[in-house]
């Protein structure tokens, strides 16, 4: 459905509540609507045009811009937009693509969600977000073109003439009041379909119904040692001996995987994966823990992880790799059933990088010799020393990576997993080139908890609520995920 291009006035929630009260009491309310100029102005606004104007189309093509009409610079990673549409059927799936963008398609994400209160013109939405790589939007600037599109997963023709945010007559950019802009989750522009304001009531998260009652694996790592029988009973295996990845001749040391208080005197235990090296392969000890069951695929994977930039004793600079990831093993070169989704933090660089860098890498397959990798990745430069909430969500459309509640990367086909995966944490040395000193030094990667829920795409706040609920009920471990 097309809509007016007139910019709507957004009255703050507290003022709307006051208006309702005074109106019910039969009082004059005019004074309440005399808002300060700053409250009456929209700071971030959405502009829209379409390059597919027909009532039906092979794909919908909402091209968007965001303009900052406020006085302060805004990090785009704090901004999302929602384009609302009517699905062609309850079972129809959709896929997002970015054809071209001034900010770079790699810095733009697109996820789908279901509205809590469907209307005649909308029961779904496409939410557009930005990674940290998109930078900030200064006062008076706009993002420039974002040439976006979405289509049915089965490539059937879609109907868009009944879509709330669609306007077939809008072939050049203009303000779009039927597309909402959210800053830090609060609507700052546009009007959602009735009863579906993104902040009240909440809509379900992109890609799923938002339920947290699916089959679950939760572990808060309340063990005494890596040799504690409960570690194995709860479905974990601790790596020992030698072998890749990393430096040939280094040793995987179960004794260096321990469970310690989070802070001095704390009753909360965390898992500590220690890496120790003296600059030689023989003097390098690494740690790894992995699920024994290969039963994890679509769903939400979350962990609270503490990364370590600085060694305990000795010089800094080693090319260490601190990780949280899921994978299906490679059974042969270019195995089509292989998959992997990684968080890898390199506090001292490596693989040609000379500074702190975080990678989010999704793998289709690879050939180890000669090396040939089929993968894609996101990356962020800078220190991640300290505690961070890491989350990977996987559905039939996207792998989405989040750090501390912010989406940092999103990947689609051909990188989606084909089958069951293991969950893994490891801490290892990429090579011996970072620091050649023979003084022994250690780095510590720590993990507070692991949480997985099968076939549900959860928001970070839903994960935090679920974990708090489990801990509040005294649950230290739970595994209801079926074996197949």
UniProtKB/TrEMBL annotation:
GO terms for biological process: carbohydrate metabolic process. It comes from Actinacidiphila yanglinensis. This is Cellulose binding domain-containing protein. Residues 1-39 form the signal peptide. One of its GO terms (molecular function) is hydrolase activity, hydrolyzing O-glycosyl compounds. InterPro entries: Beta-glucanase-like (IPR000757), CBM2/CBM3_carb-bd_dom_sf (IPR008965), CBM3 (IPR001956), CBM3_sf (IPR036966), ConA-like_dom_sf (IPR013320). Keywords: Signal. It holds the Pfam family CBM_3. Residues 153-458 form the GH16 domain. Residues 190-218 are annotated as: Disordered. SMART domains: CBM_3 (SM01067). Residues 40-194 form the CBM3 domain. PROSITE patterns: CBM3, GH16_2, PROKAR_LIPOPROTEIN. The keyword Signal applies. The keyword Magnesium does not apply.
